[in-house]
Amino acid sequence: MANDDLRALIRTIPDFPKPGIQFRDITTLLLSPTGLATAVERMVAAVDGPVDLVAGIEARGFLFAAALAVPLNAGVLLIRKDGKLPGATIAEDYALEYGQDRIAIHADACAPGARVLLIDDLIATGGTARAAVRLLRKTGATVTQAQFLVDLPDLGGADALRGEDIRVDALVSFPDH
Predict the structure, then answer these.
(1) What pLDDT is attached to residue 2?
(2) Cα–Cα separations (whole angstroms), residue 127 to 17, 51, 76, 152, 153
(3) What is the pTM of this model?
(4) What gap in Å lies between CA 80 and CA 88, rounded to an integer?
């Protein structure tokens, strides 16, 4: 399979955080300088056209956003949990399994028409990523692509993003999460 070298660096921890969950732990990939560099190179190679900003979703998405922004000659936009940013913000609510959550960006972080690449470490149900797209589009940004290190396709998040006209790329897929 493609990217088997990266897949081998991602540890699976059974029954975390609760029984039946197969947690895909990317910290083992992050510990490998070669693995991290390879992941970043492959993610950069998959970018379609120039981007102005790479938007990373808190917290592991920040790591990849910063790493990709440098070779893409783009800025980094932080998408944070609500209440974590100083100054004026705009926010977007989204549903969790039991309840709601909210993400935010600085109100002046993204100019209308900015070409934004969305980044996170993993996509599962896609709730946070879809909320991030809505939030970015509120600013007038053009968001047409998202990248993830890991996709859990059985949970449908990547397909949900594709349904919103987002090109989704992931380096590694773990069916039967």
Answers:
(1) 83
(2) 19, 23, 21, 13, 14
(3) 0.95
(4) 13
> Mean pLDDT of all residues in the chain?
96
Residue among 177, 176, 172, 168 nearest 47 (CA): 168
* Catalytic (active-site) positions: 60, 97
CA distance 118 to 129: 8
User: Residue 74 and residue 99: Cα distance in Å, rounded?
Assistant: 35
pLDDT 10s digits, 44-99: 999 999 999 999 999 999 999 999 999 999 999 999 999 999 999 999 999 877 78
Please provide residue 147's backbone torsions phi and psi, each rounded to the nearest 5 degrees.
Answer: -130, 145
Q: Is the peptide bond before 112 cis (omega within 30 degrees of 0)?
A: no
Distance CA 134, CA 116 (A): 12
90 forms beta bridges with 105
Q: What is the pLDDT of residues 146-161, one digit of tens each?
A: 999 999 999 999 999 9
